[in-house]
TrEMBL record:
GO terms for molecular function: 4 iron, 4 sulfur cluster binding; metal ion binding. This is 4Fe-4S dicluster domain-containing protein. The keyword Metal-binding applies. Residues 2-31, 85-114 form the 4Fe-4S ferredoxin-type domain. InterPro entries: 4Fe4S_Fe-S-bd, 4Fe4S_Fe_S_CS, RnfB_subfamily. It comes from the Bacteria. It comes from Metallumcola ferriviriculae.
């Protein structure tokens, strides 16, 4: 399965990954200006830049082999996509208990109360092909690759 890997030595902390992630999950995924100007509430980005100057890196779901969020989910909203292996969240089943947020060892699941009491997590932009954070990182600090691949 392909995963997103952060290369902190290339990250400049510009947060474009967060901006493009939020836009990609908005009503206007292909238009950054419309996403920010016309949306009443922008979706929470599924990636977060952590900084401790001079170090910075993007943090997002690791799509774990044995995901704690999946086993802790009380409604079955968290599930593994059989085709890609990605760990996804079904917002229709999510009741916002935040158990997945508590058990995630990476802190990569976020509250998104703006669009309903559900969680937001990286979905690898499966519907768009390449993840928005990877496609728009100006310094190639985020890469999508197979585990152990170059």
């Amino acid at each position: 399965m392909k995963k997103i890997y952060a290369r902190e030595e290339h990250c400049i902390g510009c947060r474009l990954c967060e901006i493009h992630c939020s836009a990609a999950h908005s009503k206007y995924p292909d238009d950054l200006v419309k996403a920010f100007k016309k949306a009443e509430v922008l979706p929470v980005p599924r990636v977060k830049v952590e900084e401790d100057i001079p170090l910075s890196f993007a943090l997002q779901c690791r799509h774990c082999e044995e995901p704690h969020c999946l086993t802790a989910c009380i409604t079955g909203a968290m599930y593994r996509d059989e085709k890609t292996g990605a760990i996804l969240n079904d917002p229709e089943r999510c009741v916002g208990c935040w158990t997945c947020i508590v058990v995630c060892p990476y802190g990569a699941i976020f509250r998104d109360e703006g669009v309903g009491k559900v969680v937001a997590k990286c979905d690898l932009c499966l519907e768009q092909g390449e993840p928005a954070c990877v496609a728009n990182c100006p310094n190639a600090a985020l890469v999508l690759k197979e585990k152990g691949g170059e």
